[in-house]
Amino acid sequence: MSSDNSVSLETTSTSLSEDPLNVAFEDIDYTVRSGILAGGRKTILKNVSGCFNAGELTVIMGQSGAGKSSLMDILAGYTKPTNGRLLLSGRLRNEKIFRRRSCYILQDDKVQDTLTIFESLTIATQLKLGNHVSTEQKKRRVEEIITSLGLSRARNTRAGSLSGGQKKRLAIGLELVSEPSIMFLDEPTSGLDSSISKQLIFLLHLLARQGRTVVITIHQPSAALLRMVDKLYAVVGGRCAYTGSVAGLLPYLEQLNLTCPPYHNPVDFLIEICNENANALVEHSQNGKCEVWSEYNPIETDDNFVENNIKNEEVYLTTLPAPKEDSTNKILLKMKSTYSNPVWKQFATLTRRSLLSLWRNPSFTVMITGIHCSMALFIGCLFHNIGEDAKYVRDSYNMLYFSLMFLMFTAFSSVSIHFPDQIPVVRREHFNRWYTTGAYYTSTLASTLPTQTVCTLCYATIVYYMTGLPLDAMRFATFSWTLLAVSYVALCIGLLNGSIFNIKNGVVIGPFFIMPFTIFSGFFLRYSDAPSIFRWMFHVFISKTRLSGPSFCYIWNGSTQIALLRLVLPLHIPVQVYSRH
Ligand SMILES: Nc1ncnc2c1ncn2[C@@H]1O[C@H](COP(=O)(O)OP(=O)(O)OP(=O)(O)O)[C@@H](O)[C@H]1O
User: To 10 degrees, what angle do helices 393-418 and 437-466 make?
Assistant: First the structure.
């Protein structure tokens, strides 16, 4: 390690936070429903307790399915326990205040692949820091984080091209923007090789030494990682098998006549024997209440070891200040608000980010535009000049119907498939109080609408011209707006579908969602002919068209009877296209 690094390590180990926050939990139970039909309940956590201190790096470990992630979710406030108490520095915790001082980085968290590290951090400061923080201060914060996390050389690299370790560091940096005092990370080392894992744990060790409470889950930490860990919390079958320092683990096991073989990692040994000795271990640790082993050689991590063994390490926290209560939090508390910025500002920043992402990755936009233009040319050739002769009115009708269906399905499926990709990013950012879901959905719509509008207008212009429909501005406007309205509504329903289902389920269930719009469009079955018990469906499904008797014959050649679309949207954007004579 460079001399710079060693200086930083000394500095950081002493620079404890002014306001350390300890996380504790008592008698936590967590049960879930096991199957809708069975009606039974499955117990995942049973009466567990524990305490994680500021300035320490705590690892929650245990076999797969032991309940580590469930415990972490509860501690981070992601899920609610069935029973039990959650405490912050000895007092019953206020969830709003707690959420302002903490962050949670989930296992499958993603970052915006199309943005560079610098851009991602800049946007994070704009969303997470309030107006009272000046632009200069925000820029300084970005630079501090980039330098501290050793990301300087990659600052202008897009996140999609970063290594796994750099991505994880970026995800941590994004949350450090608001200086959280408590950090939860679920399986931060999953998918990383041992050397990168070591670097990441070293970073978390340094962040803890600055006075933060850092809690992570790791399935089975290696001996190298354990040297940087202050506290272990072992889970077996939803109960606590051990809580205390790493050095305390062997004497603890020996008290139970469980002797770890020489040269064996005590953690591996604990994992191996914990199932058959679960009851004894849980009883001995008092299910997490026994704190004796935490005092056994407390904070036993060997900083010299860390310093000497993390050579060529890029990470150092020279420029990152120790955590303190961000003034934003005090202002938010006074305003009784959860978010640092007003919704309109969240919307503006998110729209800018989405448009930048679209600009950076134009292949999808180019493909969608290409599909609309090619289909328009194909339809134009198929129905060439039908608008000039009234005998082709049936074809005009078919062409209109096909156009509506084509635009509805393309708009619907493009967002249904594209949107689920974004869910992990949105989940982390929304949970960590970057923005409201309303701001996110409206910004997604706002950034998708320009492409949809251009594609639909290209389609409408080509088809209108090639089919020889009368060159009348009002008719063209009505035709275009009808197609636009249908595609906008399909877009909203696609977003709804994409936000409810993953890609696989969305693709299967999507047509089921959209088919009623076809059936109740009025093309196949007229409102007046439908059995009265089904008539309400014409009002619920958006594409109800009123095409009646003689006026139908003039749809393209003269007087126009046009669709009335009654739109009931998840985003409460009612759109109506009225007919015009
Ligand atoms: N909502 C749920 N419904 C049913 N079972 C659940 C639910 N959540 C968790 N479980 C079950 O509870 C157990 C503990 O899950 P959890 O994800 O907390 O384990 P874990 O220790 O984090 O495992 P891993 O290391 O594999 O991620 C598992 O058997 C899991 O299947």
Answer: 150
